[in-house]
């Protein structure tokens, strides 16, 4: 058993090993998490969460690393969470990330953590927000969440950040990919990375067209900017930071930030509740009450919906 109080205190002081252990408790769905989250709750809310998503290889990790440098120059403490739900290539990708992030490895103002949620009961949607809480409580001013892959749950994690950055690169057939993955609806800031390659302008134009940015918007509406970068040379990264700052200011001005955070908390509660319910239902095989209900359904004396209602009432009515 872990001394949660002590661990949380150490994490709050910014000790990297304590932060790492707390995130491991999240990853392992430790029974002590309930206690951990109760201790962390009053310490959270200070961090600004930025999600980064985009096709594999588009330059998310390189951009993340460059953003870390920019924020460190401004004296901010930064947390990086790379979440990889299931990719069989994760070993390689995360190894690559370690190389790309290595320049920050010895900086005490930066926490970098890769998190795998493969086979996890609640999956990414369950684990990522809790890992973000740990980094938030540890005093990070900014948390960059890179999701590896463009599946539905990865896109959702990025979309639930305070600000969501969608990355594209020229010549990857990215336009169609992006439309397919539904990421054209979620970007607050768009980055066309690898602008040192041919076609970056065309990609930006195509994106501009697909986003309908030429269309009129209300005077108070947010207009997602498109920023061109060469992340590998840190070019354009200051412009990305500027776009992130502007989006944050806009959200605060229009009370959008508070609403977003409530939506994120609601999803978090929902996921925890559903995971707990599913776990309880999962242990019902051979349960007498369930067997009895099943007999009545096969008899035709009870319909399956009414049986399910009885089952759920039995699970939650204690
Ligand atoms: N030419 C060019 N290459 C870049 C640029 N940015 C990143 N790369 C290269 O693109 C490759 C992929 O970069 P990553 O940062 O790992 O991309 P990623 O989106 O994190 O990839 P996954 O996490 O595997 O999805 C690496 O070889 C980078 O060096 C850029 O601006 N220009
Ligand atoms: Mg990456």
From TrEMBL:
Domain of life: Bacteria
This protein's record includes keyword 4Fe-4S: no
SUPFAM superfamilies in UniProt: P-loop containing nucleoside triphosphate hydrolases
Any Pfam family the entry gives: MeaB
Keywords: Chaperone, GTP-binding, Hydrolase, Kinase, Nucleotide-binding, Transferase
GO MF annotation terms: GTP binding; GTPase activity; kinase activity
NCBIfam families: lao (TIGR00750)
Alphabetical list of PANTHER family matching this protein: LAO_AO TRANSPORT SYSTEM ATPASE, LYSINE/ARGININE/ORNITHINE TRANSPORT SYSTEM KINASE
Stated family: Belongs to the SIMIBI class G3E GTPase family. ArgK/MeaB subfamily.
Protein name: LAO/AO transport system kinase
